[in-house]
């Protein structure tokens, strides 16, 4: 049995109260294991981003419980939650959210240094992360010296640096052209194959096709799932009919 | 290794005739040689039996597009392309492939009927199709990754990659179409739910136009 990295148990998120309240997420149950790449699709307002922000500890559930590496997020105070986020959760955003005045290496090492890791060690780990996403040679570049695809790789390096095993990606290819976007998906796929749990929110079916499981959200609920075990050799041995 | 997806076999009409003629443009060949050249150059994407090859060669000869040069001394009957055959190949390559009569779309028919019947959950019908299309898309994407890896290892298989890309984009287009259908049907469901299909009054259409005929 694979290790669970993310679990949602009957998680709901309601905004507002009374007659005007809006249920963004309704009693969602979900388990994602280490090494799994899960895509979340659904129309606007279906709850995709709410699911991601809750899973990433950026928002609190109205009811239900969320576990990241078996730690219940609801039991943590704001400082503990921030520490858990820096240690265990990596976020990748559509618009990268990088610090323009820092180099690629500094952007990636920043969360480690904020977490108290000595600068030399933090930089060594940041370098490893940049190497993992294929842009080690661009370590000393500033953000305005990098293309969109390269900046997104820096963002992914920042998301995976250290021991983080949960990567949450919110439309990470939205600002990129098709070929560059495919490169980013390749990196996310590799991260999952290397043991991370990856959750990708996307409205692009072709990008969701990279995932092991695709969840379809509607009105705050998971209404269906497309899931296959990952074994390309079986697919390649299909016989002609 | 056979790697054909059923849709390749059943859904696509392939011009074996033109493909073999195009191969003969390279050099004269005999039947088995043509088959292995065809399979090598198309990445074994379309299976071809030797009977098909000889039947096609007979027809090409009959139509003056290929000529039988007799035995090569080793028991092989050699065929070469004629001038008319070369012109036919040029015409084939320069002409776009047009699906002049798109197959009936069963899902479109199913949805139109579902709209006119009570008690059917159209969103569930759409979602079932969306999930099935996504499973196909996941399979194609995995096979595409494997093919790209093989390509990176110098084991080139251009035809197979092109076929997979085509299947990926087709599956993606179907899912986008389903999303569009869902939005469109939501808007129109209330006005059409109780209306039985009216007799069609569509007028005759220009047979030569590129518009899709019903």
Largest interface: A-B, 27 and 35 residues
Would you tell me which CATH topology of one domain in chain A applies?
A: Rossmann fold
Structural class of chain A: alpha/beta
The N- to C-terminal Cα distance of chain A equals: 36 Å
> What is the name of the CATH architecture of one domain in chain A?
3-Layer(aba) Sandwich
What is the CATH top level name of one domain in chain A? Alpha Beta
Under CATH, the homologous superfamily of one domain in chain A reads P-loop containing nucleotide triphosphate hydrolases
Low-pLDDT stretches of chain A = 230-241
User: Rough shape of chain A?
Assistant: globular
Largest sheet of chain A, in brief, is: 6 strands, mixed
Radius of gyration of chain A: 18 Å
Q: Record the strand order, biggest sheet of chain A.
A: 6-7-8-3-9-10
- Number of continuous helical runs of chain A: 8
CATH homology group of the largest domain in chain B: Winged helix-like DNA-binding domain superfamily/Winged helix DNA-binding domain
Shape of chain B: elongated
Task: Supply the helix-strand structural class of chain B.
Answer: mainly alpha
Low-confidence stretches of chain B: 4-13, 201-210
Quantity of strands of chain B, as a count: 2
Q: What is the N-to-C succession of helices and strands of chain A? A: EEEHEEHEHHHEHEHEEH
GO molecular function (chain A): ATP binding; ATP hydrolysis activity; transmembrane transporter activity
Protein name (chain A): Macrolide ABC transporter ATP-binding protein
GO cellular component, one term (chain A): plasma membrane
Keywords (chain A): ATP-binding, Nucleotide-binding, Transport
């Amino acid at each position: 049995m694979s290790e669970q990295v993310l679990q949602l148990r009957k998680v709901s998120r309601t905004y507002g109260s009374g007659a005007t309240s809006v249920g963004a997420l309704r009693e969602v149950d979900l388990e994602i294991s280490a090494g799994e790449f899960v895509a979340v699709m659904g129309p606007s307002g279906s709850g995709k981003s709410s699911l991601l922000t809750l899973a990433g500890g950026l928002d609190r559930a109205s009811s239900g419980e969320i576990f990241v590496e078996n730690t219940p997020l609801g039991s943590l105070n704001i400082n503990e939650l921030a520490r858990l986020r820096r240690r265990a959760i990596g976020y990748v955003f559509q618009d990268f959210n990088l610090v323009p005045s820092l180099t690629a290496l500094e952007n990636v090492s920043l969360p480690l240094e904020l977490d108290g890791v000595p600068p030399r060690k933090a930089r060594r780990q940041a370098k490893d992360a940049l190497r993992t996403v294929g842009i080690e040679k661009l370590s000393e570049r500033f953000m305005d010296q990098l293309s969109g695809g390269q900046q997104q790789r820096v963002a992914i390096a920042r998301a995976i640096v250290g021991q983080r095993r949960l990567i949450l990606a919110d439309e990470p290819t939205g600002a990129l052209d098709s070929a560059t976007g495919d490169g980013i998906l390749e990196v996310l796929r590799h991260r999952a194959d290397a043991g991370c749990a990856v959750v990708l929110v996307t409205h692009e079916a072709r990008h969701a096709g990279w995932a092991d499981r695709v969840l379809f959200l509607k009105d705050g609920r998971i209404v269906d799932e497309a899931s296959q075990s990952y074994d390309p050799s079986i697919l390649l041995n299909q016989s002609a009919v | 290794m056979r790697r054909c997806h059923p849709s390749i076999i059943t859904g696509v009409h392939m011009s074996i005739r033109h493909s073999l003629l195009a191969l003969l443009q390279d050099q004269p060949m005999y039947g088995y040689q043509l088959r292995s050249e065809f399979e090598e150059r198309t990445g074994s994407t379309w299976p071809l039996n030797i009977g098909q090859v000889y039947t096609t060669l007979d027809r090409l000869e009959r139509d003056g597009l290929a000529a039988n040069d007799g035995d090569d001394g080793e028991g092989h009957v050699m065929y070469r392309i004629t001038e008319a055959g070369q012109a036919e190949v040029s015409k084939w390559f320069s002409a776009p492939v047009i699906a002049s009569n798109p197959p009936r779309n069963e899902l479109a028919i199913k949805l139109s009927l579902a709209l006119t019947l009570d008690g059917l959950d159209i969103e569930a019908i759409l979602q079932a199709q969306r999930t099935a299309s996504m499973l196909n898309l996941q399979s194609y994407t995995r096979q595409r990754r494997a093919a790209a890896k093989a390509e990176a290892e110098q084991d080139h298989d251009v035809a197979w990659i092109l076929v997979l890309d085509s299947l990926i984009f087709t599956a993606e287009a179907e899912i986008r179409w389903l999303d569009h259908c869902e939005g469109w049907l939501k808007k129109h469901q209330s006005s059409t739910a109780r209306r039985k299909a009216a007799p069609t009054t569509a007028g005759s259409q220009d047979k030569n136009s590129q518009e899709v005929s019903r």
